[in-house]
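User: For a benchmark we're assembling, each entry needs the component sequences followed by a predicted structure for the full assembly. Here are entry 17's components. Please fill in the structure.
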Amino acid sequence: MSEEYVLQLQHIRKEYPGVVALKDVTLELKAGEILALIGENGAGKSTLIKCCSGAVIPTSGKIIVNGKEFSSMTPQLASENGIAIIYQEFNNVKELSAAENLFLGRPIRKGIVIDKKAMEEEAAKAFEQLHIKIDPKAMMKDLTVGYQQMVEIAKAIQQNARILVMDEPSAPLTSAEVESMFEVVELLRKKGVSIIYISHRLEEIYRLSDRIVVIRDGEYVKTLITKESQVEELIQLMVGRELTETYPPRGNCIDKNEVVLELKNVTGNGDKNINLKLHKGEILGLGGLVGAGRTELAEMIFGSVPKKSGQMFYKGKEIDPKSPREAIDLGIALVPEDRKRHGAMLGISIKNNINMPIYERNSRFSVIDEKLEQEIAEKYQKNMAIKTPNLNQLIKNLSGGNQQKVILGRWMAANSELIIFDEPTRGIDIGAKYEIYKLMNDLVEKEGKSILMISSEMEELMGMSDRILVLAEGNMTGELNKEEFSQETIMTYASAASNE
Amino acid sequence: GTRDDGTIKVGITIQNLSNAYWAGVMGKLEQEMEARGWEYTIVGCDNNAGTQVGQVENFIISGCDLIMVHPADAQSVEGICSEAMEADIKVMCWDDPMENTTANWVLDNTELGREIGKTASEFINEHYTKDEKAQVTVIGYPSTKVLLERADGIKEGLEENCEDNYEIIAEVDGLEAPEAQTNVETVMSAHPDANVFVGVCAGAMIGSNEALLAEFGKGKIPENYGVITTDVTLQQLDSLKAGNEAVRAIVGFEGSNEDTAKACADMFERILSGDDFSSGKNIYRAIGPITLDNVDQILKGM
Amino acid sequence: MKENKLGNIIKSQAIWVVFIVLCVGFTIANPRFITATNLLIMLRQVAVWGIASVGMTFVILLGDIDLATGSVITFVNVLCSYLMVHMGVPMALAIIITLAASTLIGILNGFMVSTIGIPALIATFATQTAFSGIALIICDGQPINGFTESFKVFGQGKVGPVPVPVIIMIICFALGAFILNKTYFGRYFYAVGGNIEAARLSGIRTGRVKYLVFALSGFFAGLAGLVLLSRVNSGMGNASLGYEFKVITCVVLGGVSVSGGSGRMSGVVAGTFIISALNNGMVLINLNSWVQNIVLGIVLVLAVGFDCYQKKRQAN
Amino acid sequence: MKENKLGNIIKSQAIWVVFIVLCVGFTIANPRFITATNLLIMLRQVAVWGIASVGMTFVILLGDIDLATGSVITFVNVLCSYLMVHMGVPMALAIIITLAASTLIGILNGFMVSTIGIPALIATFATQTAFSGIALIICDGQPINGFTESFKVFGQGKVGPVPVPVIIMIICFALGAFILNKTYFGRYFYAVGGNIEAARLSGIRTGRVKYLVFALSGFFAGLAGLVLLSRVNSGMGNASLGYEFKVITCVVLGGVSVSGGSGRMSGVVAGTFIISALNNGMVLINLNSWVQNIVLGIVLVLAVGFDCYQKKRQAN
Ligand SMILES: Nc1ncnc2c1ncn2[C@@H]1O[C@H](COP(=O)(O)OP(=O)(O)OP(=O)(O)O)[C@@H](O)[C@H]1O
Ligand SMILES: Nc1ncnc2c1ncn2[C@@H]1O[C@H](COP(=O)(O)OP(=O)(O)OP(=O)(O)O)[C@@H](O)[C@H]1O
Ligand SMILES: [Mg+2]
Ligand SMILES: [Mg+2]
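Assistant: Structure for entry 17:
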């Protein structure tokens, strides 16, 4: 490995009104290495790497690519200098085909005329390399979240970039897809591509990276050689304290006699004949591959999408919520998987975001009790350890993880009895994860609530659930009790339907 | 007639059908044509020449025997009117002395403006002197040719008929009543002794009358304050007749709406019956002031 | 937080600064501008737009737009005068029926936008077109007049020196600010305007919110129409052509973002005042009405542009 | 994918079905409707809007809107006739100058929208207001006429039985379809309209795309203005009040989504034809012009509503 740096971000500082996202961070990428960038939510990882494409213009600092210095970057310059970036948020055009998305901004063309066929052929090749079956002509909006992410990855690879930056590429993917992505990453490494890899999943970091850069609160902390580092050390550097357990223990608090939620042959929204029982004080895990239909099931329970047939019982009474409002009033909550689109109301304050479902409850003749509003917001800011200078801050100015905490706070405040978590810790750092797990435990243990948890992280699913149900292509394919938990069994069930 | 069943069909396009004066006259004209057993289509072009050309095209294709245009811009419809003439359709123009027509029923808008100016002068001469000049506001709407000509005519008429006893203190827009009212209020605020308002249309009169009523109250408007414009609508005539409002005179045409409609229908008859207009195809419309003296007679035909 | 509030104050004041600069300029050109009488006249003139702008603010906050406002005002003019004059309906009842009708038009818009899913621009444009036709049919293109004296109060009356329409406008502004800041509906407007799907998943019945907002827009337009009717004392089938854009201009000048989710009532008040000062001042200084158009366009670009440019720079 | 294409075809055909139903209806009411002469006249009448709708389609695909179109058409009318009549500029040069000027107005809009960040609705409304004033100042409120005979060709000429404006419109439609489907910048319009941030981060110079689209909209409006001028043979300061909404209606009827990112040129052709059939047919069947407004509103709601309702149901 040569000691020459292909990319240097030097003394980068980025200020937002009221927030300093980065304070003098330096990061240097060597030729042909995989450099992991880790840090808590809001540490500034995404902001930092956005600087090398011009998606974010740093307040001060230098960007040096292959020895050439740039005071400011643009997406065009970055691409001309061999940099490709997979962003944490999706960056696709829903109304164009997968192939056109793959070639967005650099279509194959003859003169001013595009060559659609060539693009489709190239796209098909790229998808094949990733072992995914995506029709290049399919509209982006018709693809699932996981597939959309795979298109993003294919797009970055397709550019034949010398420098590849990946910001949490695995977050929306299932294990099988993560595997094929890893193969490609290894292949690229062999070809001499230099890679910056951001993830909250430490096992990925250990598997792939050569060196690790840790940042915290917008400041550079330390660079480590992966092989010489310890997980405990990493975590301590990230969160600034020691964490002993990944999954906090929880006493048995399940009340077998009280069934909070029962589904009988629920069909609709892509799911068929789903039966399940959730007891009071239980955390029931829902496992499966991308497209298994778990989110769809959650949407039906939450009244967001109507079911076609079957029955739902909540605390023994039959229910058929026609809107989220009805579900919320019954005591059901949903922490959605796509935070930016379905969770956070980005343009309004943290305080309003937390209070949104309970305004009617806390109003008199439609007039809001502003004191109560403030108290509630303060309470859950404290409980959820939301990092913010003040509660009137717009939620869009928070990092992904902190946004998630606001959403969790919202449902805590709404006093829901049954909380559905759809990928509760997607893109959330270890420190915050632990807090959220503890909170989930407290909810079932101390407050007698019940939780339905959808998760694609196998570890998390097994670590947190009391029982696991597995879905495949809209069918329920298996149920596991705690003592039966194992990755292999879950995977077998998860791929059951497609094997038939 | 070219119609299969022998009935006569008339196509009419006018500048603006949502305008009170036009809606009123056209309503009466409809009655006249119905009485004669004709078929008709009346459309407004919203002061838009392009639209009007299209409307004449549609009339040609729908097999009219007579097309009447009240042109947004006479020059623009000359071409299409000549096509109509070629198709053996009679064409009449209301207002302008057009070329490609069978006959024109002409209103000289500059002349009409002059008449308004003259009528206003009589009022001014009666109430004002060299030492105490009338403070005149001209209410126009400079975006259409017709109204622009009227406004210019008004100024000429004032100059010709007044002694040195007036002064134009403001010129403002006011095609529709609310706009006129707002602008007159502003003028009165800028010139507290603004007292004579002369305008080019019904909206100008209704708006300024209402502004004066609001300022002084009914019956309390000083004698030397007045509003004089053209167009014959019921509301204007009522205000004039009431006597305790600001309306002093209206410059009208043939008389009532009914008179106008009848005169127009008579023109239609003459044209349809194949009268020869080659010696003089421009028939000029009568213009004359309506005052308290003849208002009752006119109101009968509204 | 302090900083933020200060920033907001400065931002909203930028609009007020524009207003004050305009006032000073006009006063220099014609000292009568600043007299109490003229200022009251100025406000009276803008009352119709100001009242309608309250409903429009809600609609624009939702990220929608209401092009039907002008037609609703015209329709109300014609309907109310038809009821009172041709059908002999007592004034109070006629007013109630008229306001109900205008609110219903708003609900029709809400139905098209929310239930059918037609973009507001198109749905309300269709309503505009259709109701301008209906208004003309009702009145047969003729002005309707001859109301009772008491009806004049709304448009021409005064309480002390203050014209009644100005009082109505101020009450509407206050009501608008109250709804936006103190009631949960107001919070919902911002939430739905900002991210409708997230709002729905937080338990807001977004469909109902849209209905409510369009109904309110219809209602305020109806009220504005009544004030106009009383002011001009005659119902006409073309009373308010293009008023929707006057009203939209007031709202947007006031800093309400047309993409929805942000804006404040106080800004709209300032926007309305600016338009009113311009309308009045340009006539006072005898500006040619063609040039007035150019000035209006430039002021709009400068005022909105300043705000947008700031935001754009901040975003980076 | 097959399914998808089929779906698209059915969708775009829904608009054509509306067109055919209208034609059949009008023909039954008045057989003259379906004569070749009338159909050509019908197309000639709509040519001005059809030409302008090509540029408007691009703008709406971007999720923006161009309210300046009507003013640009008026401005072009006045400018070109002023140059030819009052300044004696030769026809060809006058046309070139005029088209350049209209494109420049488009670029001005692009500057305000892209560089300053003013929402298109506001920016182009300001342009509309200002340029309607400028046009009136140039012509002093008077029509300008007295062009050379050869100038009449664009609006009144014929090639065989086919009017020249119809030919120009067809060329513009074909050019529009080519740009949208075959050229890379046409695809960029979809990308920028669909997700501007993604487009930017993929290296598309989104600012330039906006400039280009508004410039094209100005250019096509300019061309439409020239055709109108040649058709009416006289330049007026209020030639095309409200044309922008006629043009927007054609585009939106044609299924182009006002939120940007989706729509096809063939749909816009259908939308234009529907408007043209309605305009022509309603006069042929002697429909009262007030009722015409009501019919227009209802057709707009039905056609767009059907599409939107389908999409809304599909989304669930
Ligand atoms: N547009 C913005 N305006 C204001 N503050 C911002 C903005 N974008 C990011 N920030 C702030 O910058 C900091 C860094 O955010 P960033 O998204 O880079 O974190 P991250 O390390 O990628 O976190 P995560 O792991 O949650 O994705 C956060 O404190 C956030 O609040
Ligand atoms: N917009 C859409 N249009 C058509 N089909 C869709 C759409 N979204 C999802 N689907 C289909 O619905 C099914 C469920 O997809 P989804 O990814 O939501 O499942 P999931 O179990 O929630 O997966 P995840 O692990 O991502 O939570 C898949 O078969 C997918 O193809
Ligand atoms: Mg991040
Ligand atoms: Mg899911």
